[in-house]
Amino acid sequence: MDITDFPEPEIRSLAAQAPAVFPSSMTQSTTVNTIIEKLNTANLEKDLTKLTEFHNRYYKSSYGNQSSTWLQSRVQEVVDASGAKGISVSAFKHTWAQSSIIAKIPGKSTKTIVVGAHQDSINLQDPTNGRAPGADDNGSGSITILESLRALLTDPTIAKGEAENTIEFHWYSAEEAGLLGSQAIFKSYASAKVDVKAMLNQDMTGYVKSGGEGQMGIVQDNTDSALTSFAAKVIASVSSS
Description:
This protein has helices at residues 8-16, 29-36, 41-52, 62-82, 135-152, 156-159, 180-192, 225-240; strands at residues 88-92, 100-105, 112-118, 166-172, 196-201. By secondary structure, the protein is an alpha/beta fold. The protein has one domain (3-12, 27-203, 218-240): 3-Layer(aba) Sandwich (Aminopeptidase). A five-stranded mixed beta sheet has the order 1-2-4-3-5, with helices on both faces.
């Protein structure tokens, strides 16, 4: 998403926010590694299998609506199972059939960190009725952040709302139609002056070529250079641990 996607009032609102300052070194490695150990590949496989069973997840189709409804219920199940209190899971309604989904974990401040992925899929030959399981694009990203949410809520500090920042997980509708769901959400955030300090998007995750090794890539165009640099440091730290 580029700032030029917003009308002038929203651009001024975003520009007025104080820029985030990211750590120069890793200070939470012990906590992060503990959370990583809670990730479960069986959960990833089960949830991705279910998500890809929908005929497609096209944003205007009944299947897209059904898949979004299921995904919201699954996110709610993960939150409920964690025992954490004060976390909201809500549908962000659009003018089309498929809703975006937002899970909000309050922190000690309203400064907000967003983790997102798009939930929709498309068959370009027949968008409404064609089969489009979308396991890679982007069931993988959607389920990656779902399992990340579950693991994150095992941390007592976060689960009790004592993290330094508010954390949100977003599942966007209508990305394949031109980033429509994410733009609608962030336009509303800009208008409401939500102080978003960082946003990490997950797209087409977990693919490893047969016989190859896993790699992590960072998109650098239309991104914040300071956040990109920090993300690279996090990847290097996690990969070496």
